[in-house]
Specification:
Blueprint: H1 2-13, H2 15-25, H3 35-64, H4 66-85, H5 90-102, H6 106-117, H7 123-148, H8 151-154, H9 162-166, H10 170-190, H11 215-226, H12 236-264, H13 276-305, H14 307-315, H15 318-335, H16 340-370, H17 377-409, H18 416-433
Helix pairs in contact: 1-7, 1-10, 2-3, 2-12, 2-13, 3-4, 3-5, 3-17, 4-5, 4-6, 4-10, 6-7, 6-17, 7-10, 7-13, 7-16, 12-16, 12-17, 12-18, 13-14, 13-16, 14-16, 14-18, 15-16, 15-18
């Protein structure tokens, strides 16, 4: 869980200042409406690189163990964050984000480990931990990015050295990198291997009350799984949950790209004109509230109404979330300032987003249960993460470019981007209806 905590700190810490960084690089020629194009490219590059490598990392973890893959991922992400903070050109940002994606297969390995420690009786409680820790990290990350960016402006006496003027965004990146060093040490010294064939012999059966079976059976199953052809896993039972996950990720990453862009866009273009520090504060408060809400209610709601009904209800919140953007734009134009009515609308939007985010924990349960055996769970999660990374490649660039295009050409009064995503939300709602009604244990 420590690893799940530090990863969003790095990924979310750049969001409060990425748009301002793009402006300061001068590549837009002073055109604020074009910032979205370049911000979307930077945000997508991590997922481009991850798409090419995550399945290989996942399959490697089925052979050499989960722990070595996690350690490589933590090291790579740490180095990439330091490079990002030292970049003073657009291509420097490109290289650092690609490095982060190529060396990082941690997300799918984490889900595989959790799947190996749970079954259908405690899966909701187990997978509730992932979004909770993500939200806590998502609270810390934007605060780090928003508060520590350009420290020479906020604390000129403490950061008077010319280094901070040359690299004004190094401090939040360095703090994020320190978090990864901490995560590396925790994994190295305290994490036990969950892959049965790589465990130390003294490690016995039960974690979260789950029996892991005989090692000889697991070794035979692992050998068989290693030789299993990838096409044999592309069954409807596996593909449908992965398709839901990919579409969910596409819409979610689009929302996470549009939200800070909307908040930072000047009011005359229909945004709210927030500063990076204010954006970081809003996103941090939302992430903490989201984590608390999921910790208290996720498992109880899933047990009460069932994972499928809950997933379908959660994804239905996306359409009203999108519709609140043009409502806030209209209010800004009508009132000329960000007042209490706009603040209340923003709070309502973030409240709906908390319900929307709970769909992640549910779809993780469906993907884990879709694996025919535990020995191919890493590969199934790798397939899911590859599909999701492809969606996240498209998401930020598509969303921010469509946002910029809508504003530049005043399509549907600048609101065409929201209409497109409302339609895509309808597609996800239909995909959700195709999920199985019940989650079954593997190997039943």
């Amino acid at each position: 869980m420590t690893l799940r905590l530090v990863e969003p700190i790095a990924s979310m810490s750049i969001f409060p200042y990425i748009n301002q960084l793009i402006r300061e690089l001068g590549i837009t020629g002073g055109d604020d409406a074009a910032v979205g194009y370049y911000a979307g490219i930077i945000e997508s590059l991590f997922f481009v690189a991850q798409t090419l490598t995550v399945l290989r990392w996942s399959r490697l973890s089925d052979r050499i163990g989960r722990k070595p893959v996690l350690l490589v991922g933590l090291s790579g992400t740490c180095m990439s964050m330091l490079c990002f903070g030292l970049s003073t050109t657009f291509w420097g940002l490109v290289v650092s984000r690609c490095m982060c994606g190529v060396l990082n297969g941690n997300v799918s390995v984490l889900k595989t480990m959790l799947g190996e420690l749970t079954d259908s009786t405690n899966m909701a409680q187990g997978f509730a931990l992932l979004p909770i820790m993500w939200c806590i990290g998502g609270f810390i990350g934007p605060l780090i990015g928003g508060m520590l960016a350009r420290p020479q402006d906020n604390w000129p006496g403490l950061f008077a050295h010319p280094f901070w003027s040359k690299y004004p965004y190094f401090l939040p990146c360095a703090v994020s990198a320190c978090m990864f060093v901490l995560g590396f040490l925790v994994v190295l010294f305290f994490l036990e291997e969950t892959l049965s064939t790589k465990r130390r012999s003294k490690l016995t059966t039960t974690t979260l009350g789950i029996s892991n079976g005989a090692n000889s059976d697991d070794r035979g199953g692992l050998s068989q799984a290693s030789n299993m052809h990838m096409r044999s896993l592309l069954t409807p039972t596996i593909v449908i949950p992965i398709a839901n996950y990919a579409m969910l990720a596409l819409l979610d990453i689009a929302l996470m790209a549009i939200l800070p862009l909307f908040l930072s866009t000047p009011t005359y273009l229909g945004g709210l004109g927030f500063t990076p520090a204010r954006i970081g504060l809003w996103m941090g408060i939302y992430a903490m509230a989201n984590g608390t809400f999921q910790a208290l209610f996720f498992a109880k709601i899933v047990d009460w109404i069932g994972p499928k009904r809950f997933f379908c209800g959660a994804v239905s919140c996306f359409a009203p979330i999108m519709l609140m953007f043009p409502i806030m734009s209209w209010l800004v134009h009508a009132r000329g300032m960000v007042d209490h009515a706009i603040t209340l609308t923003l709070i309502s939007q973030l409240a709906l987003t908390m319900i929307w985010d709970m769909a992640y924990g549910t779809v993780f349960m469906f993907i884990t249960a879709s694996a025919p055996t535990k020995n191919v769970l890493g590969t199934v999660n790798g397939l899911a993460q590859t599909s999701t990374s492809m969606a996240r490649v498209v998401g930020p660039a598509f969303a921010t470019s469509l946002f910029a295009f809508s504003k530049e050409h005043n399509i549907l009064n600048g609101n065409a981007v929201y209409v497109v995503f409302v339609v895509l939300a309808g597609v996800l709602r239909w995909l959700g209806s195709q999920l199985p009604d019940k989650i079954q244990d593997r190997d039943e």
